[in-house]
Design brief:
Helix content: 25-40%
Shape: globular
Structural class: alpha+beta
Order of helices and strands: HHHEHHEEEHEEEEH
Number of strands: 8
Strand content: 25-35%
Length: 223
């Protein structure tokens, strides 16, 4: 296969660690531009989230003192299906406090198809604090919809951006379980056709990863 010249947007996305180190740790909007920019200006597409149930109400009522290991929060089979060609071990992003905030990223370019997945955990002092943070972030990402049966509350949104004629579609899922926030970002591009994957593919992929991540909260220490 001939060498593929990567767009500037992809080049920027392949160096997130240095940028995140300057900020202290990776917040949950996912990787760097172009998708981050999409949250500020791109029109939103409202996905229809599946209604299959995730953890029981008993599990959702627990308070957590620590974040689980993010790179083991998504099953290997799920990583392979969502990010073909990526190292299944993932890459944990440096954090100023790994007890409260942890993020893992997987990304790969296979042929001309590029995929990126981020999973983040944030632990607040109380469920009320986590609820306020969740509601604030949902308010900043208008145009999406609720994901029934996932944690205490969950929300997904998908957006499409175009940079240098290259489309990128990104899905974000926010889920709250007691005092824990789970944030999943999943996006993709096709550098041959310049098109992005469909809304349904990105939305379902992000929700699938979010369900696994919410389930992984059982590995954290209850408060």
């Amino acid at each position: 296969m001939r060498s593929l010249p990567l767009p500037l947007a992809l080049t920027a996305r392949l160096t997130p660690v240095a940028v995140l180190a300057c900020a202290g740790w990776a917040l949950t909007s996912g990787p760097a531009a172009p998708p981050a920019a999409a949250h500020r200006s791109a029109p939103r597409e409202t996905p229809a989230g599946p209604s299959s149930a995730a953890p029981s109400s008993g599990a959702a009522s627990k308070a957590y003192a620590t974040a689980p290991a993010p790179c083991s929060s998504v099953p290997v089979a799920t990583v392979k299906s969502l990010v073909p060609g990526a190292a299944t071990s993932g890459k944990e992003i440096p954090s100023t406090d790994t007890r409260l905030r942890r993020t893992c990223s997987w990304n790969a370019l296979q042929g001309y198809d590029y995929r990126w997945l981020d999973v983040s955990f944030e632990i607040s002092d109380s469920a009320a604090e986590a609820k306020r943070e969740y509601e604030q972030r949902v308010g900043e990402k208008s145009g999406g919809g609720a994901v029934p049966g996932l944690g205490d509350a969950a929300y997904s949104v998908v957006n499409l951006t175009t940079e240098d004629k290259q489309q990128t579609r990104e899905g974000v899922v926010l889920a709250r379980v007691s005092n824990a926030l789970v944030v999943v970002t999943f996006n993709g591009s096709d550098f041959e056709t310049k098109k992005a994957p469909g809304t349904d593919e990105i939305n379902k992929g992000a929700i699938k990863a979010a369900k696994a991540a919410v389930g992984a909260l059982g590995g954290g220490q209850p408060g």
